[in-house]
Amino acid sequence: MTNTAQKNKQSGLGMLADIVICIVLPTLILKKLSGDDSLGSVGALVFALSLPLAFGIYQFWQEKKIKFVPALGFINILLTGGIGLLQLDAGYIAIKEAAIPAVIGLATLISLKTKTPLIKMFIYNEAIMDIERVDSALDAHKTKSQFDKTMINATWMLAGSFLLSAILNYGLAKYLITAPSGTAEFNSQLGSMTALSYPVIALPCMVVMIVILFYIIKQIRQLTGLKLEEILNT
After folding, report:
1. Using an 8 Å Cβ cutoff, are 207 and 215 in contact?
2. Which long-range contacts (CB under 8 A, 24 or more apart) does 163-166 make?
3. Whole domain around residue 147: which residue ranges?
4. Of 86, 76, 30, nearest to 53 (Cα)?
5. Contacts made by residues 43-51, CB under 8 angstroms, sequence distance 24+
6. Packing angle between helix 40-63 and helix 25-32, nearest 10 degrees?
7. d(CA 165, CA 149)
8. Could you tell me the pLDDT band of residue 221, with boundaries at 50, 70 and 90?
9. Which of 45, 69, 130, 174 has the least CB density, counted as fewest CB within 10 Å?
10. How confident is the model at residue 14 (pLDDT cuts 50, 70, 90)?
11. 200 has pLDDT over 80
């Protein structure tokens, strides 16, 4: 098996593990084990949140470095647990759900002023494109400055996708989370939100990401003359 095939297989398994550990299992625990005849509302909430929390710590231990987005996910889990365990107003869930993607969107724009814009982490990276070949072609055609403008436009589009996520997160949380925190009904509603967050929120944002990707590829082809198969890191 080639290195690329191995990386693709590992990426696929990693994505499957993310979905199972961070979405499927917490949803089932919150909805099925929150009753008094089972773990109870507090026990189920702690158990459900401990899975993605432990998974995030394990990934950090494997990679030996802190990444911005996983760090926000870690904070997100702690905030959810805090709201539930301290039995704060459930309305804070909607605020928290909107705040996380909003912070990522703001950080994406701010990163334009740094040496490592977040657009490179999300889209313009070695996992997706042959960066070395693209950069060489841009230098050869003396079109690097035009491509920099493309990346600025793409960054604003990416920030817009996080704004969309914030709005959808807030709306979904306000619609679903109506029970007082610390109750079995609250846990069940939280489980429903966890399950629906992927099709309702992640898929539209993924579509925007794909649009941004094709926009960048189109601009690269125009600025360098490279073919699609030469741009993508296949």
Report:
1. no
2. 163/101, 163/102, 163/105, 164/204, 164/205, 164/208, 165/101, 165/105, 165/201, 165/205, 166/98, 166/99, 166/100, 166/101, 166/102, 166/105
3. 3-231
4. 76
5. 44/184, 44/187, 45/81, 45/84, 45/85, 45/187, 45/190, 46/81, 46/85, 48/187, 48/191, 49/77, 49/80, 49/81, 51/21, 51/22, 51/25, 51/26
6. 170
7. 25
8. very high
9. 69
10. low
11. no
- Eight-class DSSP state of 81: H
Q: What are phi and psi of 232, to 5 degrees?
A: -75, 145
DSSP E strands in 20-70: the ranges are: none
Please write down the long-range contacts of 109-113, taking CB distance under 8 Å and 24 or more positions apart: 109/155, 109/156, 109/159, 111/155, 112/152, 112/155
The structure tokens 């079109």 sit at 143
pLDDT at 21 over 60: yes
Cα of 133 vs its chain's centroid, Å:
28
Give the global pTM. 0.72
Cβ neighbours for 1, distance < 8 A, ≥ 6 positions apart: 9
3-class secondary structure for 131-195? HHHHHHHHHHCCCHHHHHHHHHHHHHHHHHHHHHHHHHHHHHHHHHCCCCCCCHHHHHHHHHHHH
Q: Is the pLDDT reported for residue 149 higher than 90?
A: yes
Name the domain count of the chain: 1
CA 167: distance to chain centroid?
15
